[in-house]
Design a protein that fits this description.
Number of strands: 12
Mean pLDDT: 88
Helix content: 40-55%
CATH topology of the domain at 142-272: Dna Topoisomerase Vi A Subunit, Chain: A, domain 2
Radius of gyration: 22 Å
Number of helices: 9
Shape: elongated
Strand order of the largest sheet: 8-10-9-11-12
Low-confidence stretches: 46-53, 267-272
Structural class: alpha/beta
CATH class of the domain at 142-272: Alpha Beta
Largest sheet: 5 strands, mixed
Distance between the termini: 83 Å
Amino acid sequence: MNIDLQKGMFYCFGCEASGNIIKIVAQIEAINELQAVMKINKIGAAVGPDEERERVTPRELKEQAFFFYDSLPQQNWHTIINHYMLDRGFDAKTLNRFGVRINPSSTYPVILPLMMNGRFRGYVTRRIDEGEPKYLYSVGFSRARTLFGNLKKGRVLLGEGVFDMMAGVQFGYANTCSTLGWSISPQQARILQKYATSIVCALDNDQKGDEGYLKLKSRINLPIVRFPFPDGAKDLRDLTQTQFDEGMAVAIAEVDRLVLNDSSSESDDILY
């Protein structure tokens, strides 16, 4: 067997197996590739009194995460007929747009790169069975420092999970992002404040989503309204295109009213 340490690749002259370091660790340890990445990161991060290795930096973990994601075959979702992601209501255009890939050897076979304004921050994998936890993030990924989305200055639609953000974009509202959880962190709030002029909060339609809405209002001083979910809808993925359009129309009208009131208050301050 030949192992190229510089390129991180191997080739076996006996069985003609080949691939990257993730693949060989997975085969030797009889584990899937996601578990192999975790094992590699754990070994690389180990530090002891006699160790010569340096602790793996966040940048190196991000590079390893991208290396793993990029090693998976790129899907053309237009050629796939049956799949969990299609059953969840996503069309091929959206899945191709977000670079969703499939890792069939893993118990977390759906993998999605987490991008923040064009920059790779890590990835998230999703189970398609009833097992828990449903999601796993790449080693070293910081949810608190990431807003999943491609934001521009203006009104922002804020979703809770990765699929909510994808649903908002598929419905036609490109200026959508996700906090990757019900609670917005101080770092996420600062990032959001740079782009948002007002916010439509579409965190899940449950108690945690309501708590997240209140926390959002406490951390960002902007016009913020709650998306009016119809009865029975838990999040953006449960909506039809018509329900989304109607809900956004109501939310935008309320946001515009708040903006107008703020403008009137500023004028009053100047006059008096």
